[in-house]
């Protein structure tokens, strides 16, 4: 089954992300939102699955160099990451997006989805917090009613859903990877960036880092999700619940 499971967006801290595979220390990132379709998971699993996706997305983004992209494979699931370098305005870092897919969703399409979400957010297509993206009189009226435009460069922890209008739109529009493949201009830009493929999340971590320890310390995961992860780890099915 071809499935786009989630699209998440982060603002990298000053200086961008950290190095992966033994590079520099991971840098803090600010979550700007995540849209997810978890209909393929059991009802009582969905809250923990959502938290685990957010945790893994943040962990990988923190270990991806600005101006690069990489794919992390874990069993039947893939996390495709695009990190844009900061433009230097206001001393901030750049945007970083993640698409989580099943193994049948093409990597090129997944990268296009992330790049499109970054492009829309950076160009201000997300009209306002709580508003709808788009054009025309209706969109303008909605934007006026919703308040000031969302400024991702100034986003803090309280803006963890600021990018949701863009992310939800991408999740819906690009369930069919053929639609994402039509983003040819974005694909040409991406072709200039080398893709790094990691077979597991462990290969992204710095030397000495352990996924279990990061799970224990993560603020993204509730106690229930940490227990869910540990039980799945013991049965050797940890990342099948992504």
Helix content: 25-40%
Number of strands: 6
- Averaging pLDDT over every residue, what do you get? 78
User: How many DSSP H or I helices?
Assistant: 8
Proportion of residues in extended strands = 15-25%
From the helix content, strand content and strand pairing, which structural class follows? Answer: alpha+beta
Low-confidence stretches: 127-133
Which assembly state applies to the chains in this document?
single chain
Radius of gyration: 17 Å
Query: What is the 3D shape?
Result: globular
Q: Please outline the major beta sheet.
A: 6 strands, mixed
Q: Helices and strands in order, then pairings?
A:
Blueprint: E1 4-12, E2 29-36, H1 46-61, E3 68-74, E4 77-83, E5 95-102, H2 107-122, H3 137-146, H4 164-173, H5 177-181, H6 184-191, E6 195-198, H7 211-217, H8 223-234
Parallel strand pairs: 3-6
Antiparallel strand pairs: 1-2, 1-5, 3-4, 4-5
Description:
The protein has 242 residues and is of the alpha+beta class. The chain has one domain (4-132, 156-241): Beta-Lactamase (2-Layer Sandwich), CATH 3.30.450. 35% of the residues lie in helices and 18% in strands. The chain has helices spanning 46-61, 107-122, 137-146, 164-173, 177-181, 184-191, 211-217, 223-234, and strands at 4-12, 29-36, 68-74, 77-83, 95-102, 195-198. A 6-stranded mixed beta sheet has the order 2-1-5-4-3-6, with helices on both faces. Helix 1 (46-61) crosses helix 8 (223-234) and helix 2 packs antiparallel against helix 4. The two termini are 15 Å apart. The model is unreliable at 127-133 (pLDDT under 50).
